[in-house]
UniProtKB/TrEMBL annotation:
<comment type="similarity">
    <text>Belongs to the CoA-transferase III family.</text>
</comment>
<dbReference type="InterPro" id="IPR044855">
    <property type="entry name" value="CoA-Trfase_III_dom3_sf"/>
</dbReference>
<dbReference type="InterPro" id="IPR003673">
    <property type="entry name" value="CoA-Trfase_fam_III"/>
</dbReference>
<dbReference type="GO" id="GO:0008206">
    <property type="term" value="P:bile acid metabolic process"/>
</dbReference>
<dbReference type="InterPro" id="IPR023606">
    <property type="entry name" value="CoA-Trfase_III_dom_1_sf"/>
</dbReference>
<dbReference type="GO" id="GO:0008111">
    <property type="term" value="F:alpha-methylacyl-CoA racemase activity"/>
</dbReference>
<dbReference type="InterPro" id="IPR050509">
    <property type="entry name" value="CoA-transferase_III"/>
</dbReference>
<dbReference type="Pfam" id="PF02515">
    <property type="entry name" value="CoA_transf_3"/>
</dbReference>
<protein>
    <recommendedName>
        <fullName>Alpha-methylacyl-CoA racemase</fullName>
    </recommendedName>
</protein>
<dbReference type="GO" id="GO:0005739">
    <property type="term" value="C:mitochondrion"/>
</dbReference>
């Protein structure tokens, strides 16, 4: 795989950090999570990673982390600014141990500025990026699209991309560097097209009244007879013509930009058939009309069956295949590997670092490290 041989240290965190580590693991990196002494709730992205449980409030615990850093390629820090420095594990300290280490810092607001020490979540970062203000309709409060935009797109994915760029640059310079990946700033960057197109007529109205945000009758979702939904993206004239053909409507009567009449008429017609019936109609028409698939039934649709985009984990839960696809070095989802539990690899990792059996026993006895058995969780 593309990242085979790359050693990553991931400091335990929630959502964005673990998914960044999971991306790297899916493409072959050897990822070790340094977890706290107590299990963290909602951690569902530990598959394919090693886990060592260390008390980093102790001198001995910090020494273990430093030893790990000497042979690592990437250090993924998801703590607030200053936390790692206070532990003696800041980038300047680690660089003295390993000048080739890439130190990636993934936080909500980054390492500088008036908000750097503030707590936040995806909804806050989306708000501060300006993007959340666009996700409104009819003057109602904006609705956050789960925690996808800032946490994962602007955070995890861009941070992983930054790490890969730094690894590539290191092949030329031989040096590591610090990556400051702020989710707020990252969300703004992935929204570059929206920022750069704001002067165009497609954004002339209030949120929810424009071409791409639900204000255009030929670019929105409609409810079907069976309570499901169809998504319509018939923007171009040729697609709109086929869309009207599927609805059995006249293009002369339903001009593409006659929104006031079109919205209600389209909604009325979609309610006359089930989602499956509409699929049968539009499968034969190139109209940019698709069913709104539900997560639980994705693997039943032929698109996902043929492309094998869906896998199942040890609990029979649907997980996506790593993307993008590679011709020679494809990613292999770590999600299919049994999830590691907290401290599962504590002892073998310490042994690799050169600790003797007696030294490991002392560390365990003194609570410097921990090793959990699955049955104890």
């Amino acid at each position: 795989m593309a990242l085979k041989g790359v050693k990553v240290i991931e400091i335990q965190g929630l959502a964005p950090g673990p998914f960044c580590g999971a991306i790297l693991a899916d493409f072959g990196a050897d990822v070790t999570v340094i977890s706290k002494l107590e299990p963290l709730p909602f951690d569902v992205l530990n598959n394919g990673k090693k886990s060592i449980s260390i008390d980093m409030k102790t001198k001995e615990g910090i020494e273990i982390v430093k030893k790990m850093c000497t042979s690592a390629d990437v250090f993924l820090d998801t703590c607030r600014p200053g936390v790692m420095e206070n532990l003696g594990l800041g980038p300047d300290s680690i660089a003295k141990l390993n000048s080739r280490l890439i130190y990636a810092r993934l936080t909500g607001y980054g390492q500088i500025g008036p908000y750097k020490d503030k707590a936040g979540h995806d909804i806050n970062y989306g708000a501060m990026s300006g993007i959340l203000s666009l996700l409104s309709r009819n003057g109602e409060p904006p609705v956050a699209p789960l925690n996808i935009l800032a946490d994962f797109a602007g955070g995890s994915v861009l941070c992983a991309f930054g790490i890969v760029l730094a690894l590539y640059e290191r092949t030329k310079s031989g040096k590591g560097q610090i990556i400051d990946s702020a989710m707020t700033d990252g969300l703004m960057y992935i929204s570059s097209w929206i920022f750069r197109s704001r002067f165009l007529p497609i954004w002339g109205g209030e949120p929810g009244t424009n071409l791409l945000d639900g204000g255009f009758a030929a670019y929105k979702t409609y409810k079907t007879k069976d309570g499901k939904f169809m998504a319509v993206g018939a923007l171009e004239p040729q697609f709109y013509a086929n869309f009207l053909k599927g609805l059995q409507l006249s293009p002369e009567e339903y001009n593409q930009f006659n929104n006031s009449d079109n919205h209600n008429k389209f909604a009325e017609i979609f309610l006359t058939k089930t989602q499956e019936e509409w699929c049968q109609i539009f499968d034969n028409l190139d109209a940019c009309v698709t069913p709104v698939l539900e997560v639980e039934s994705l693997n039943e649709h032929e698109y996902h069956k043929v492309k094998k985009t869906i896998l199942k984990d040890e609990n029979n839960i649907i997980i996506p295949q790593p993307q993008p696809r590679f011709s020679r070095t494809p990613g292999i989802s770590a999600g299919q590997v049994k999830a590691s539990w907290y401290g599962q690899h504590t002892e073998p990792i310490l042994q690799e670092l050169g600790y003797s059996k007696k030294e490991i026993e002392i560390l365990l006895r003194n609570g410097i490290v921990n090793t959990y058995k699955r049955s104890s969780l």
